Sequence to fold (253 residues):
Amino acid sequence: MKRMNIAMPKSLVMIGAGVLLFGSLAWCADDHSDIDKRLDASAKVLTEIMGTPDKAIPDKVMRDAKCIAVIPSMVKIAVGFGGSHGKGVATCRTESGAWSAPAPITLTGGSWGLQLGGQAVDVVMVVTNEQGMQHLLASKFKLGADASAAAGPVGRDAGADTDWKMKAEVLTYSRARGIFAGIDLNGAAITQDKDETRLLYGKFVPFSEILNGQVHAEQGSDEFLEAVRRYSGQSREHGEVTAPSGNSQQASN
Fold:
């Protein structure tokens, strides 16, 4: 009987430890699933927006982009306050001209709010020049304060004869209820999502290392990067097929 009294607590400890370990592994798996879903959602948002020629981001804007960021389903975080919060991913052109591995980001807005009743809004940002890219590489900056920002022109042929590139370091867009338009995001802060970075790459990697091309893209990033390559014109420049396909293909860099 004494042996049983001694053995039972040890068994309970082992069972408890196993439950904690299993729970921890399940939590990590769920979180990694979230970043994978965010990458897939970002690819889908960009593909759907660019698939409507008369309402897409202009080809010239995409072709000259230094960085592209997508925040799918940004939501309002405080009723009456107007603050908004969303998570997404960004990629930048490296010195070789190829697009970098994606870097998880967080976009937190201020008084601009979500104008159409508080529903989720897809946000796309295009960094237009080197100065704007350097702000993004700093891993934390504020639109309108650290970097100039403006609502971007809409329509595949729009913006070709305007001076949009001289006016803003970041062009900003939103899509809500199927309506795609430029949006003023001045006051919104962009930061590196450190927790998502650890989940995606297995450790923390600084923003600048990811966006400068010093990190290899994970397999789950293929669809997002394929969409960026396709619509930024990189595929055309490399003589690759640009039409959307059912299967994601890793474009050669």
